[in-house]
Amino acid sequence: FWNVLIGDMSLVGTRPPTVDEWEQYDVNHRVRMCVKPGITGAWQVSGRSSITDFNEVVKLDASYVRNWNILLDLGIILKTVGVVLRRDGAV
Description:
Blueprint: H1 2-5, E1 10-12, H2 19-24, E2 38-40, H3 54-67, H4 70-86
Parallel strand pairs: 1-2
């Protein structure tokens, strides 16, 4: 949470990649990095562990980037609370 307070991350955003992942990204994958990484995001509240296709993760994140608005973030935060309470997607 400290990273959010100092401005390195957002509450809602895309999942930050590791260096190895970043080096393997195609150009179309890099759209995910147009926003700050977040503690939660579209992928985390849309099935997380059940989504094994990286291109599906990229689609979710690209849609988030293209359609961002404050209501979308609020919706993702509310869904995150539900996911955590139900322990959905936990491995």
